[in-house]
Specification:
By secondary structure, the chain is mostly beta strands. It is built from 2 helices and 18 strands. The chain has one domain.
């Protein structure tokens, strides 16, 4: 996903297995993300093209939980990964957007693989941008039908915000490509999108492989979380629960990481895991 960027924020369902950025060509826009997130507000903490690292201290690496640790094991957890969406992976025409100077690729701004869903992304200029207001229009499928995370995307996988796109002769979503032409037949009617806006900079100060998004009803924000599958990540497998999401429901944890080398890499996806949770002291 909803969690806060400036207000609540985002995320999708555990049944969607990974997120594919659109490999759109002029003949087709039917690619749908396999794992998507709603209103994510994510901030990088250094790395190539991601700006300077923050000044907050690196979380202390803890030992593997012992019987004397003051936490508890949580079983049956799904682990997925997320990252700021790189604009360079997208193919849409450069357009202006509410709240931003300059122009950015339309599918990076509004698609279910871009800033609107991921909440934050890395622009072509090397700067971070985030979703400032999600509005209330919801989402549509590639066919242009309404869908929502509130019922597990029963209407179909989200493809685009419920506006800022054109409908082709069949009523499906299409958008202009940077190279010319359209993603899925020429657009016949534009659908506006009131209420959605963007802003420069990161929305939250998160740490690659140090922060996770959680359902706070299951894992309170501020908790320390040990994930055995990440014990060799340089931090001993320990994370801090700092983020939330509309699609992070129940026993589902999303690990914040640096963007992979290619859009086809959907990140690690683990099921039926056990994690150790140390809740913050009240």
């Amino acid at each position: 996903m909803a969690r806060s960027l400036t207000t609540p924020r985002r995320r999708t369902c555990a049944f969607i297995a990974g997120m594919l950025v659109f490999g759109v060509v002029a003949s087709s826009a039917s690619a749908a993300p396999s794992r998507v997130r709603v209103y994510a507000a994510m901030a990088p903490t250094g790395g190539a093209g991601l700006g300077p690292a923050p000044t907050h201290p690196r979380p202390r690496v803890l030992h593997v939980p012992s019987k004397r640790s003051r936490g508890a094991w949580l079983h049956g957890v799904t682990i997925s990964e997320y990252w700021p969406a790189p604009e360079s992976w997208f193919v849409g025409k450069l357009v202006s957007a509410p709240g931003l100077w300059g122009r950015h690729r339309i599918d990076w701004l509004y698609s279910a693989s871009g800033v609107s869903m991921q909440g934050q992304g890395l622009g072509l200029d090397g700067q971070m941008y985030h979703l400032a207001s999600a509005g209330d229009g919801g989402w549509v499928t590639a066919a242009g039908q309404s869908t929502s995370p509130s019922n597990g995307w029963a209407g179909g996988a989200p493809f685009w915000r419920a506006g800022a796109f054109w409908r082709n002769p069949l009523g499906a979503v299409t958008f202009p490509l940077a190279a010319g032409g359209w993603s899925s037949e020429p657009g016949k009617r534009y659908v506006s999108l009131p209420g959605v806006s963007f802003a420069s900079g990161p929305a939250l100060s998160l740490t690659f492989y140090g922060s996770v998004a959680v359902d706070p009803r299951v894992i309170p924000l501020g908790s320390r979380v040990y994930i055995p599958g990440y014990r060799n990540d340089g931090r001993g497998g320990w994370f801090i629960a700092q983020d939330t999401g509309g699609g992070i429901i129940g026993r589902h944890i999303d690990v914040y990481r640096s963007p992979p080398a290619a859009a086809q890499d959907t990140g690690q996806y683990l099921t039926s895991q056990r994690v150790y949770v140390i809740k913050p002291r009240s």
